[in-house]
Amino acid sequence: MRRDIEYDQEAKEDLRALSADQRGRVRSSVDGQLVDQADIRTTNRKPTRRGALGSWELRRPPLRIFYDFDERTVTVRAILVKERNRYYRRGREVELDEPSE
After folding, report:
1. Are 101 and 49 in contact (CB under 8 A)?
2. Nearest to 77 by CA among 101, 48, 97
3. Residues 17-73: pLDDT tens digits?
4. CB atoms < 10 A from the CB of 24, how many?
């Protein structure tokens, strides 16, 4: 099932803070993997317990793309950069409550 892709305002700001290369990687990952398969668990795409950011996480090292979806739409909620065991959003370190499953 094909879904439309939306970026909420926070994710749009996250995207603007990334380098051009990283923005391209986010867009190609989202367009390539989430339009048709947002709900299919893979090595790099899985449900997360970080509900405040999104119910699912797409990993594209060093990027983490958090999103939610319904039958028609995938909504990207947050885009973070991971370096070792730290996460950064718009250049600032952020604390995440729990690790992914």
Report:
1. yes
2. 48
3. 999 999 999 999 999 999 999 999 999 999 987 667 999 999 999 999 999 999 999
4. 11
Tokens for 19, please give them: 């380098």
Do the beta carbons of residue 89 and residue 96 sit within 8 Å? no
Using a cut of 0.85, tell me whether the model's pTM lies above it. Answer: yes
d(C-alpha 89, C-alpha 80), whole Å:
5
Tokens matching residue 41: 């668990």
Q: What is the pLDDT of residue 97?
A: 67
Q: Write down the pLDDT at residue 101.
A: 46
What distance in Å separates the CA atoms of residue 59 and residue 12, rounded to the nearest whole number? Answer: 18
Helix segments in 1-101, DSSP class H: 9-17, 20-29, 35-37
54: its two tokens: 């999104």
Q: How crowded is the C-beta side of 89, counted as CA atoms within 13 Å?
A: 15
Domains in the chain, start-ordered, CATH in brackets?
Answer: 4-94 (3.30.2310.20)
